[in-house]
């Protein structure tokens, strides 16, 4: 691969890079400490703990794109089926000088898009049929540029790994508690078993909470970074702002039951699957507010105008 392919023309973002490195370091540190604690408490079961932690991590890292696609109902789309979609991505990838990701479509009325994959060569960009039906070509271009920015900056992989570590802590804890590793008789009078039954779940909750907070902070920043990069690449921040306004408004009108099914994947979406009430009250949102995103795009528009 040539050097021009290793770095795209998407504007580099040192703030995003610094936050990704810091988030991964802190989450990794917390998780290593958690695994070490389990090894000390569970003693004889340490080989299985190490194997389980490492195995689940590798599976998630290598197959994250497939797992996410299946969970969100995405299916790879051919250029014959969606020529406009492929044409827009082809133009953006040529403009950004980056490899073209796989293109997928999810048959879902909720207007949205997401990108996933551990590296640009293995990435997939997916849009819903609801998004294709509602957006004008220049608005769709802005959304796709936003998703391609995630791929180029590799923050998709960081979010996938960071989010998974918290879930992995919970899975490991459940296996430790209910897999017989704390003794055959959990109701025995062994004080060490009683202490472990209290400590392990508490530490697991702390690990999950820290992972949750760190990934939320990174997620909000990376969305602003992707908006910024997409606007600068296309030179049309107003089109992206129009798409944001339209998508957010249309999502708020989607039935609540459908939104709840999509909410576990909010960190990957172009716009969160939230009702108008939820968007206004959610404290730990995966995305910055619509107002903040529009303000940034307005500033970029003014800068480009000058």
UniProtKB/TrEMBL annotation:
It is found in: Cell membrane. It is an enzyme of class 3 (hydrolase). The chain crosses the membrane at residues 21-39, 45-63, 156-181, 193-214. The active site is at 147. InterPro entries: HtpX_protease, Pept_M48_protease_HtpX, Peptidase_M48. One of its GO terms (molecular function) is metallopeptidase activity. Its cofactor is Zn(2+). Keywords: Cell membrane, Hydrolase, Membrane, Metal-binding, Metalloprotease, Protease, Transmembrane, Transmembrane helix, Zinc. It is a multi-pass membrane protein. Zn(2+) binds at residues 146, 150, 223. Its EC number is 3.4.24.-. Residues 81-299 form the Peptidase M48 domain. Coiled coil: none annotated. Binds 1 zinc ion per subunit. Belongs to the peptidase M48B family. NCBIfam families: PRK02391.1. This is Protease HtpX homolog. The lineage of its organism: Bacteria, Bacillati, Actinomycetota, Actinomycetes, Kitasatosporales.
């Amino acid at each position: 691969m040539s050097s021009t392919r290793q770095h795209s023309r998407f504007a580099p973002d040192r703030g995003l890079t610094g936050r990704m490195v810091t988030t991964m370091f802190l989450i990794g540190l917390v998780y290593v400490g958690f695994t070490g604690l389990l090894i000390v408490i569970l003693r004889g079961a340490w080989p299985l703990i190490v194997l389980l932690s490492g195995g689940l991590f590798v599976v998630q890292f290598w197959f994250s794109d497939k797992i996410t696609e299946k969970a969100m109902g995405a299916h790879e789309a051919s250029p014959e089926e969606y020529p406009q979609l492929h044409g827009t991505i082809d133009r953006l990838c040529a403009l950004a000088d980056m490899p073209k990701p796989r293109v997928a479509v999810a048959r879902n009325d909720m207007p949205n898009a997401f990108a996933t994959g551990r590296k640009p060569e293995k990435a997939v960009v997916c849009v819903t049929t609801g998004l294709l039906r509602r957006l004008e070509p220049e608005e769709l271009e802005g959304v796709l540029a936003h998703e391609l920015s995630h791929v180029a900056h590799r923050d998709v992989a960081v979010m996938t790994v960071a989010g998974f570590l918290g879930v992995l802590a919970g899975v490991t804890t459940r296996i430790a508690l209910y897999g017989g590793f704390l003794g055959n008789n959990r109701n025995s009078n062994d004080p060490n078993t009683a202490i472990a039954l209290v400590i392990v779940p508490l530490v697991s909750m702390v690990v999950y909470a820290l992972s949750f907070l760190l990934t939320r902070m990174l997620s909000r920043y990376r969305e602003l970074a992707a908006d910024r990069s997409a606007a600068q690449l296309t030179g049309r921040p107003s089109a992206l702002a129009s798409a944001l306004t339209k998508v957010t408004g249309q999502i708020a009108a989607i039935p609540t039951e459908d939104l709840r099914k999509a909410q576990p994947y909010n960190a990957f979406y172009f716009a969160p699957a939230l009702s108008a009430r939820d968007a206004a009250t959610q404290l730990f949102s995966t995305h910055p507010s619509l107002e903040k995103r529009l303000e940034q795009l307005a500033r970029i528009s003014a800068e480009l105008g000058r």
